Amino acid sequence: MVRQARSKYPEIEFRLADARELDYKKQFDAVFSNATLHWVKPPLSALSSIYKSLKDQGRFVAEFGGKDNVQIITSDIKRQAHRLGFPYHEERFPWFFPSIGEYATLMEEVGFKVTFAHLFDRPTPLMGADGLRNWIEMFGKMMFEELDHEDLNQIIRHVEESLRDSIFKDDRWIADYKSIRVIGIKE
């Protein structure tokens, strides 16, 4: 994505960096993040780094997975793994899906004045009959790093069978996404 952005907008500098360790100090009027921060742990490190990168009165705007995001899917993945006798380790859950209260508190802890926070349902189609399988293989397989391909496939088959009646509609899977959108001002 960075390579494409550089190609499309050569006059703009693009850098790949860890959100927890940005080396910017009071350089930006605004920071925007979309669909990223639920992957960043610990969240306080990223927020602190973002806060430091903003000028005074700078604005932070973000949207990412919030409380109970993909809970139907992830709960069934864990349930099927347990039912089939495969180990699951909660510390391998790759996401941080906070409530409004949790995230606003973290924002305030680093110094932001929270001016907006909203949690909302965002049902998301997963394309094709293999949409759920593809989603799990792309985003969820790190929950079971020790499993071989066939064991993971067995879990996925059981999840598909278990969830077909509830989230497979009109020939496509509908993921139970829930997003949080926040705005904070650096004080």
Task: Detail the poorly predicted runs.
Answer: none
Helical run tally? 6
Gyration radius over CA: 19 Å
Q: Helical residue percent?
A: 25-40%
Q: Which fold does the CATH topology refer to?
A: Rossmann fold
Query: How much of the polypeptide forms β-strand, as a percent range?
Result: 25-35%
Strands, total number: 7
Category by helix and strand content? alpha+beta
Shape: elongated
Number of domains: 1
Distance between the termini: 32 Å
What is the CATH superfamily classification? Vaccinia Virus protein VP39
The averaged pLDDT comes out at 96
In what order do the strands lie side by side in the largest sheet? 1-2-7-3
Described by strand count, sense and barrel closure, the largest sheet is: 4 strands, mixed
CATH architecture classification name: 3-Layer(aba) Sandwich
Order of helices and strands: HEHEHHEEHHEEE
CATH top level? Alpha Beta
Structure overview:
- This protein is an alpha+beta fold and 187 residues long.
- The protein has one domain: Rossmann fold.
- 39% of the residues lie in helices and 25% in strands.
- The chain is built from 6 helices and 7 strands.
- The protein has helices at residues 2-8, 43-53, 71-84, 100-110, 131-140, 149-167; strands spanning 28-34, 54-65, 112-121, 124-126, 168-169, 172-175, 178-186.
- The strands form 2 sheets. Strands 1-2-7-3 form a 4-stranded mixed beta sheet. It has a 3-stranded antiparallel beta sheet with strand order 4-6-5.
- A hairpin with a 2-residue loop joins strand 5 and strand 6.
